[in-house]
Design goal:
single chain; 157 residues; alpha+beta; five-stranded mixed beta sheet; globular
């Protein structure tokens, strides 16, 4: 079953985020707290959204996303920040079901695309995404400002 996340899901969403970070060899980078997620997902002005994959009433996967915008299309899109399914539950269709739900939301709301990033070494995920019809956008390189570099730029502008 795929459903929208509720405030009661926040502890499980954080668990899944931490599990994803561990899988991506980046657990040490996770700073998010339950309070951070609760505010972002369910505060007065939510900026992110989440869907939960359930098995026997227990969350086993999630998709966390936010709206993007394409100036070329003139429409919003969905940017999928995280998609994760517990390793023991993979192969049961939960990842696909989460992506189907996001595609349904995008189609229903007139959004122009669903996009995301995947680590270059994550061959199982790449194969999974390509089997669904997704194609890599290899002519673009993602850049990021964070930490000290972000602070330095902000304060020296």
């Amino acid at each position: 079953m795929i459903r929208a996340a509720t405030p009661d899901d926040v502890p499980e969403v954080l668990r899944l985020i931490r599990d994803l970070a561990e899988y991506e060899k980046s657990l040490h980078e996770v700073q998010a707290t339950e309070d951070d997620l609760r505010e972002a997902l369910f505060g007065p002005e939510p900026k992110i959204f989440a869907h939960i994959a359930e098995h026997d009433g227990r969350p086993v996967g999630f998709a966390l996303w936010f709206l993007s915008f394409s100036t070329w299309l003139g429409r919003h899109g969905i940017y999928l920040e995280d998609l994760y399914v517990d390793p023991a539950m993979r192969g049961n269709g939960y990842g696909k079901a989460l992506l189907v739900e996001l595609a349904r939301v995008a189609d229903e709301r007139g959004y122009g695309r669903v996009e995301w990033a995947v680590l270059n070494w994550n061959k199982p995920s790449i194969d999974f995404y390509e089997a669904l019809g997704a194609r890599p956008q290899d002519e673009w390189t993602t850049y990021r400002l964070t930490g000290d570099a972000l602070t330095k730029l902000a304060r020296n502008a």
